[in-house]
Amino acid sequence: QVQVVESGGGLVQPGGSLRLSCTASGSIFTLDVMGWYRQAPGKQRELVAVTTSGGTTNYTDSVKGRFTISRGNAKNTVYLQMNSLKPEDTAVYYCYVYQSGANYWGQGTQVTVSS
Fold first, then answer.
1. Segment-wise mean pLDDT, segments of 10 residues, the chain, 115 residues
2. CA nearest 13: which of 109, 114, 92, 86?
3. Cα–Cα distances in Å, from 4 out to 13, 98, 105, 108?
4. DSSP string spanning 16-62?
């Protein structure tokens, strides 16, 4: 089993920045994909950004140029730097890990963008 724990959410004003962190632990081997999804009230969960063990990254269009995903030196940590935040970025953000055919999710961290 893989445990996934996020941190770093909070309340921020429009135009502000936040950095989310996620650490995977337990039976970690290849950690093929790590990334972030989000779910706003009344909406489906959507991909925000993911990165593969080979360094490929993918972002949803609405965050390109504002969000940056990166992995730590130990490779079991992934970060999401969020700049120029907008009210529509408000959501619960979930860390996602894919390894050896299985999906793992964190418990979610709330990000609220409001003045």
1. 95 98 94 96 96 95 98 91 98 97 96 97
2. 114
3. 28, 11, 6, 10
4. --EEEEEEEEES-S---EEEEEEE-TTS--EEEEEEETTS-EEE-GG
